Amino acid sequence: MPQPSGIAPSLSSGPTPLRPDFTPLRTYLLTLPFVTTTILLLAILIQLLQSTLLPTLRPLLSLDPLALTSPTWYTQLHRLNTYPLTHLSPLHAAANLLAFVPLSARFERFQGSARWAALALGPLVVFPGVGYVVVERFVLPGGGTTRVVGLSALVLTLFTIVAVNTSRVSPYIQVPWWRCGGGGRGGFRTIYAPLALVGVFFVVAPGGSVVGHLCGVAVGYLYGFGWLAGLEPKEWVVEKVEGVARRWGWLEGGWLGRAGWVMAERSGRGRGDEGDRLPTSFGGGGGGEGSVAGSGGSNANRPFEGVGRPLGS
User: Fold this and answer.
1) Which position among 44, 170, 229, 242 has the lowest Cβ density within 10 Å, counted as fewest Cβ atoms?
2) CA dist., res. 69 & res. 62, Å (int)
3) Neighbours of 107 (CB within 10 A)
């Protein structure tokens, strides 16, 4: 009788099942800067609360033109800061956050956390909100009262700033099937990319607020061309804030430092870097995918990480 060989047969005859590797995503999330992480967590927390325990939270935080033009408007000013943090649904929140996080992280690393917090909580959010309320209540026929929520207006503001920065060194986005005048040179005008994106949003999500999106684009143009530069926090204010945090031990080795705080002197702006730019070549021709034609230096090939597809403002 033959003796058993002592080698157990394999119990699995098929291929080893593939398991998703979430390490890159985990690494990316853990390296996000402080203000971007804070906004991300607040938006997720608010969405969870209004979907479960506090369904009345959205009406309290939304941008409500009627409330902001009522006799008690001064008690509703918080809405100008809180409307980006609340969303219509988990899908709406996920789409907006996928668009917002890469943009915000890049802007924060360039501006520094203190300056980015002042901009993100101040003019880049408040001005589109004020513009929306004015247009909705006093320009549109009948005086609109539609409430809006979501990060998409801020996403479009940031996208527009990047487009303006790109247009200074590359006026056209080169697309193989798009030709314009001037002997066939060029492509789609870079400066008009935000308006084209608003059109895409309208087609993909017709329920979104076109007025809110256009207000976000308008503020992006104003900031990108330097007309809102006077509203940025002054250098001495940023240095004072970070000096106090450093004396209290919050920065190097402290909880803010461990949480991803980007100090002003270590930001891209502090090092003299240029801002981010859009990719200006797609497919054939030009400088290759993701390149910026006509620009030089180490910042010439910094791909824009995309804005996703926000589902409304």
Assistant:
1) 229
2) 14
3) 24
Of 113, 152, 209, 295, which residue is the catalytic one? Answer: 152
- Is the per-residue pLDDT at 313 higher than 70? no
Sign of CA dihedral 273, 275, 279, 285: negative
pLDDT at 273: 57
Catalytic residue among 87, 113, 209, 213: 213
Integer angstrom CA distances of residue 37 from 40, 107, 215, 266: 5, 13, 25, 18
How far is 38 from 218, CA to CA, in rounded Å? 26
How many CB atoms within 10 Å of residue 250? 17
Give helix 152-167 / helix 90-111 axis angle, nearest 10°.
40
**Annotation marks residue 152 as catalytic:** yes
Contact between 108 and 33 under an 8 Å Cβ cutoff? The reply is yes
Active site annotation includes 87: no
Q: Which amino acid, residue 124?
A: L
pLDDT at 16 over 70: no
Q: What residue type is assigned to position 197 of the chain? A: L
- The per-residue pLDDT for range 170-212, each reduced to its tens digit, is 888 776 665 554 444 557 789 999 999 999 988 888 888 899 9
96 closest CA partner among 146, 143, 49, 158: 158
